[in-house]
Amino acid sequence: MPRSHLLLAAAFCTLLVACSTKPSFVNEYRIDIQQGNVLSQEMITQLKPGQTRDQVRFLLGTPMIADLFHQQRWDYIYQFRNGRTGKVESRKFTVFFDTEGRLERVGGDVDVAEVSELTAPAAKNRLVDLGSLTGEAADTPLPPRQEPSYFRRMMNMFGF
Fold first, then answer.
1. What DSSP string describes the chain?
2. What digits encode the pLDDT tens for the residues 130-148?
3. Fewest CB within a 10 Å sphere: which of 56, 106, 156, 160?
4. CATH of domain 30-119
């Protein structure tokens, strides 16, 4: 096998391996994922035994799971995955009806929580004062734009 073929194969393998690894200084952005029904303690305290299905749906919203085989049971499930830490918070709440369609009992692990705690992201904005331009500074023209270097033009051509 000629030496040039061997070098070409080695370069190809090196490039292939480089595409499969991620440098440690590169961190991708991951969003917060919220799924399911957000239930607050105020919503739960409005439930009273004997309420109809329509009244429960008005208070809590449409259930996440309404099983055909268990028509007297509605399940409300909530899951929140923090994009930065990867921590998963999940809650489950179940509503049981009697044969006449009236609220019989409830169960689940809904804690005392405000709706704003579950839906609103933490405020991470800050105000930066850039100052204002005076009359003289506003009238002076901007310096001409510098042309990118040869290396930067090549990188832009390949999409980097």
1. --HHHHHHHHHHHHHHHHHH---TT-------EEEE----HHHHHT--TT-BHHHHHHHH-S-SEE-SS-TTEEEEEEEEE-TTT--EEEEEEEEEE-TTSBEEEEEE-PPS--HHHHHSPPP-----------HHHHHSPPPPPPPPPHHHHHHHHTT-
2. 556 666 766 777 778 888 8
3. 160
4. 3.30.1450
Q: Cα 42–81–68 angle (5° rounding)?
A: 65
pTM higher than 0.70:
no
Instruction: Yes or no: say if 56 and 37 are a contact pair by the CB < 8 Å rule.
Output: no
What is the Cα–Cα distance from 64 to 30, expressed in whole angstroms? 25
Work out the burial of residue 79: count CB atoms within 10 Å of its CB; fewer than 13 is exposed, 13-18 middle, 19 or more buried: middle
pLDDT in tens, 104-137: 988 887 654 455 554 555 555 555 555 566 667 6
